[in-house]
Amino acid sequence: MIRDKRMLTLGIETSCDDTGVALIRNEREVLCEFLSSQIKDHSRFGGVIPEFAARKHLENLLPLVDTALNECGVKGNDIDLIAVTRGPGLMGSLIVGVMTARALSQAWGVPLIGVNHLEGHLFAPMVDAEDLEPPFLSLIVSGGHTEIIRVDDFGKYELLGQTRDDAAGEAYDKAARILGLKYPGGPEIERLAVEGNPNAFEFPVPLRNTDKVEFSFSGLKTALLWQVKKFEADGSELPVNDLCASFQRAVTDALMSKVRLAVKQTGIRKVSASGGVSANGALREALSSAREFRAWVPSKGRCTDNAVMIAMAGSNAWCRGVRDGEVLPDPSLHDIMM
Fold it and tell me: What's the CA gap between 266 and 253, in Å, rounded?
């Protein structure tokens, strides 16, 4: 595969509530990256409000593009490729990113490529790890997705299994609401779990002993709810730290059991992890200490949605000959091959 070592790619990410812009060269050389988070804006609602998220993207995206260009000392027509997330995600948020990218592409005379958000996450660990090359297994674990993908080559992916119901990140957020914790729930549970006993409660680990690479977290969330109701019925003080630690252990055990199963079934001993939940300290420790495989996990700042991973995925796809027709937003785009 011939790659243009001078190729400059602008990445744009607006799938949910983070506005991301990045410029990369040579697929992995990050020139600059900027991210505008909406966590504080949505925290008072206890979750992401789609219409509000889209309005914030409208406010933030073009100023971030200008900042990136100025930071790197380039002009629009210096860019060789624009890569933008086209799905899955929130429709309003995706529209802002895709339509802005299309306008810039037309104004600058620059080609445009749409990127599947899941493929973007697959590339996130490779920003700082040049030795991660196919074949490998990719654990994508976030608020909207929990799945394991077999990567035989870039562009050759096989979904080995996914969650039957809640994603792991979604389960963390719901557990936090049950415990009366603030949004986002995952970081808050992790913070409190440090002072708790992970073995205080034996929460179930759904599907741990099955021979299928699949996940389920709704039962775990329900088990936590009933435990909380039991304390409330007794009038007892809620041992929040212990509940957080035990819940976190169960989630981590569920993820690790299926990663190990995928490694055993495929014989592939290289595993990457990405998505917001991959920033969780307990999961990172479990992955790094595993003996059955070697793990690659991005820096915590790149576990969540970011434009670098979108630029990398788009640049790689372009260099291997992928060409899009009309790039349109698709919130239901889940097949990583699309």
Answer: 20
